[in-house]
Design brief:
The chain has one helix and two strands; from the N terminus they run E-E-H.
Length: 62
């Protein structure tokens, strides 16, 4: 049986390294690596800039 995760992709074994792709941060211009194939026309952020773009977490959630 072909099991899929919630995103429709194939599951990968937890011990298998994730494929990373080189990208340039849309905010600071720094080279970075991301775990997805960047798409032209969509912004990509490095780890530091991504935190600035995420909505604040609701502390009451859990």
């Amino acid at each position: 049986m072909d099991r899929r995760n919630n995103f429709g992709g194939q599951r990968r074994p937890s011990n298998e390294p994730r494929e990373m792709f080189k990208a340039v941060c849309s905010d600071c211009g720094k080279e970075c690596e991301v775990p997805f194939q960047p798409t032209e026309g969509r912004p990509v952020y490095c780890r530091e800039c991504l935190d600035k773009h995420r909505p604040p977490r609701d502390s009451r959630r859990f």
